[in-house]
Recover the amino acids of this structure.
């Protein structure tokens, strides 16, 4: 596969490359945990994450409260029948941030918190079944970033089709350069 010159790539590919670099560097700072499938959320995303295509919110959809992305996305996904996704997103002028958003089956983002500020999104879309199971266990919101509340299940055991929905484009190192 031919190498892509990032300076000549589209703005979306440039943003995805910056976000992939950020997540890869963050994954590298965590010590190994041989008994776990993944040593960090970032390593989990590099193995199971999916890319999502930024898009402005439809004008008839409400925006949530800034700073409450996990709650906003959970409520928005339930209200409009979209996938709930957690991962990292790249906003204007900043490094990748832990974030939650919603996605259509084709991978198009509906971000009820940032609307048009997201430039790249890498995350795990959770199945409705997994979300219901977590809610019954009392685990709501921040399924990736507060794993200490659920026994580190995703890092320890990994992600399968019962947990992650088939939404978005799979992350691979080949898809990023």
């Amino acid at each position: 596969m031919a190498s892509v010159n990032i300076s000549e790539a589209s703005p979306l590919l440039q943003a995805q490359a910056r976000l992939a670099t950020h997540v890869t560097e963050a994954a590298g700072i965590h010590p190994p945990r041989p008994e776990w499938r993944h040593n960090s959320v970032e390593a989990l995303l590099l193995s199971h994450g999916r890319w999502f295509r930024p898009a402005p919110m439809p004008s008839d959809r409400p925006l949530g409260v800034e700073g409450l992305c996990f709650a906003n996305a959970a409520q928005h996904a339930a209200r409009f029948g979209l996938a709930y996704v957690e991962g990292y997103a790249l906003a204007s002028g900043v490094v990748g941030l832990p974030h939650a958003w919603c996605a259509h089956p084709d991978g198009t983002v509906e971000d009820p918190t940032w609307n048009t500020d997201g430039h790249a999104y890498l995350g795990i879309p959770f199945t409705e079944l997994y979300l219901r199971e977590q809610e019954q266990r009392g685990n709501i919101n921040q399924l990736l970033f507060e794993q200490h509340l659920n026994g580190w299940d995703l890092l320890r055991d990994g992600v399968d089709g019962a947990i992650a929905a088939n939404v978005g484009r799979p992350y691979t190192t080949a898809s990023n350069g």
The mean pLDDT is 89. The chain has one domain: 7-176. The longest helix spans residues 11-28. The CA atoms of residues 121 and 134 lie 23 Å apart.
